[in-house]
Structure formats: structure tokens, C-alpha cells
Amino acid sequence: MRGKMGRMTTTDDAGCCGGTTPAVDVVGARDLARTFKALADPTRVQLLSIVTAHEGHEACVCDLTEPVGLSQPTVSHHLKILVEAGLLEREQRGRWAYYRAVPGAVDGVVASLSTLTPETAPTGA
Amino acid sequence: MRGKMGRMTTTDDAGCCGGTTPAVDVVGARDLARTFKALADPTRVQLLSIVTAHEGHEACVCDLTEPVGLSQPTVSHHLKILVEAGLLEREQRGRWAYYRAVPGAVDGVVASLSTLTPETAPTGA
DNA sequence: CCCTCGTATCGATGAACGTCGATAACACCC
DNA sequence: GGGTGTTATCGACGTTCATCGATACGAGGG
What we know:
The structure is a homodimer. The first copy, chain A, has five helices and three strands, in the order H-H-E-H-H-E-E-H. The first copy, chain A, has helices at about 25-40, 40-55, 60-70, 70-85, 105-115, and strands at about 60, 90-95, 95-100. Residues about 1-20 of chain A have low confidence and may be disordered. The interface between A and B is large, with 62 and 63 residues. Chain B binds a DNA duplex (30 and 30 nucleotides) through helix 4.
């Protein structure tokens, strides 16, 4: 589902002055911002960090509630958002729900981010 | 404006089970999320993309209002947020305000993001 | 000087978000 | 089946955000 991160569509903007085609179009910007929105909360960054640093790169909710200092429903809510963003994946083992970091997900965000930096961006000239 | 969402969260990580020290602490997560919050809007991603792709990696507000299809105050508002996030920098030349992408800013975000990926993260074992 | 042009700020408004307590759903054990 | 433990969902509440129109600020030009 998380297939379209690096989007380089050549829409014609070419407005008034130095119109060079931007690296992302409107749809790509919306899709990219959706991923960033999942990371735009300190708790979710912390959760992602804890899960990644955990043994086997996975952790259950009971391991996460305490470090972030929030209630269990809130932690579940944040985890759901991270799963929907494609950054975490859920696996139910017995009574516990284990959350694991999706291997190439962060790399995808990095690749999309590199589209917005001047070094890797198409030289506007 | 800085309210009281700072939750102390008992700085001892290492909860009950497989507690490995996470890659980012509470302050780091808050700082990282602040940058992502600046990118968590489609308009701002689009603005950053347009500025980066522009000639000389800079653009004035009049160049940006039209492509994003929003009012001029709204565009100025988004640009201010991007400047405060350290992603854009403003320079007033004559009557126009030119916005330019800060060279190493995105790379800093990429470096912080790499801390959260399992490959580069400290192997929790 | 006054007028025009480009940009930033202000105040308001509707939508989205983070958080919680209560509760439902699900899996195990006896 | 009843009881216990773990997680997800629901409803509510306060805060933050994105957006606009109106307006103020600042720089040039006649």
C-alpha cells in the first residue's frame, strides 16, 4: 500500500519568472506530507525509536506504555497511525500485539526527502 | 505559545522486558517531530519543492502564490513556518522577499531519520 | 509627498489532532 | 465456562492548525 513515495511527475508550472518544474507535484506533496504527519508527533518518534532499538526490532504495547508516559489507549492510537503510515507493522502473537519496524520504510522517506534538497534536486537553471 | 505539553515521562527507559536504550531521547524526539511538523503539510512540501527547483534555488512570494493556489497571507504563513524550521531562509532584496533552501537542512533531517531505521540503529540484542 | 506594489501581521472560523476514561473485543488459563 | 490479562475502539474535551479577508508595514517611483 505504501508504494508511491518518490514521485517525480513533470507538471508544467512555469509561472511568471523562473519556472522550473518542481520535484513533486500536488499529489506527491500530499502523499509525502501524509508520511511526515505520522512523524510530526514527539510520541510517535519516540515510539518508533523505542521499537527500533528493542530486541529483535519489535515490542509489544506493554513495553511502550511506560517509557512514553501516556495511557494505553493513546499509545495504541499512535501505533495505529504509524502502521497506517507504513512505518510499523503489527503482528498478533498470543495475547500480545508485537510492533515491528518495516525494514525499508524509513529509507523510503529518506529517498523522498532527498528529492527536496538542492544537491539532489534537478538543477533549476 | 509554548504550552504545557511537555510530559516528563520518567527518563529511565529500560522498562520491563527487553529494554534497550532508544536512539533518541524525549528531547530529541520533540525536536525531530518539530521539524517533521513543518513538513507535515502538503502546501509546505510543495513550497519547498518549488523553491528548490527554482532558478538559483530561490523564489519570491509572488512566484509561489500561484502554483499552490492559495492566498498570499497563507503562503507567507507557510513560508514563515519553513523558515522557523530551518529549512528555508529569507532575504529581502528591494521590494521582494526571496526564499532560499538552506543547503544542509534536509541532510540533517535525513541524518536524524537514519537513527530510526533498523539498519543503522544500534542492534537491540 | 503621495501613490503603488509586494509582503507580513492580525483576528476569526472551521477542521483536525492528542489525550483521557470507560468499555468492548480477543486470547489464554483453570 | 468463568476469570484474567492485553489490546483496540468509542465518545468527549481542550488545543492546535490551516485558511481567509482586512489591514499595517516597508520599499520604489512619479
